[in-house]
Amino acid sequence: MSSIIKEQWMYAGIPLAMIVVGLLWSEGRWWFILPAIIGASIYLLFWYLQFVAATQMEQSKVLFQKLSYEFDSRQILIKLNDKQGSPLKWEMIKRVNKRKNDYLFIMGRGQFFLFPYKIFNSDNDLRFLDSILERKGLLK
């Protein structure tokens, strides 16, 4: 949720501008201030519900199962077991944020993968992934 807010901070300018106009205009100020507050609240509620609903849908159950991952220079292979899996091409990933305890792979608005460091077997695996991400120009 915080990633979405950081990405879309400029949309806060619309309600802020409406509030400033409402404060400067003495007559009918509530016609600007009240819709700005309600609109901003509805927008934040919409995104919050998107994340909550994604955890409750039947199609999302696979996201909460134990998966294994294989990283190489062509793709990320997401495996449910030895026979079932799907590839994730590097072209689908817009950027990667390397944080204190994990990698955040951002694919689009509201679409992301979070890979904690503990899924990697060694520091060599982390360095390997770092080198792939730097070559692809994804690491931020």
Tell me the Rg in angstroms. 21 Å
**Unreliable residue runs:** none
Distance between the termini: 19 Å
Strand order of the largest sheet: 1-2-3
Structure characterization notes:
This protein has 140 residues and is of the alpha+beta class. It has helices at residues 2-7, 13-24, 30-56, 123-136; strands at residues 68-71, 75-79, 85-89, 95-98, 102-108, 111-116. The longest helix is centred in the first third of the chain and has 27 residues, at 30-56. The mean pLDDT is 83.
In short:
The chain has 140 residues and is of the alpha+beta class. The chain has helices at residues 2-7, 13-24, 30-56, 123-136; strands spanning 68-71, 75-79, 85-89, 95-98, 102-108, 111-116.
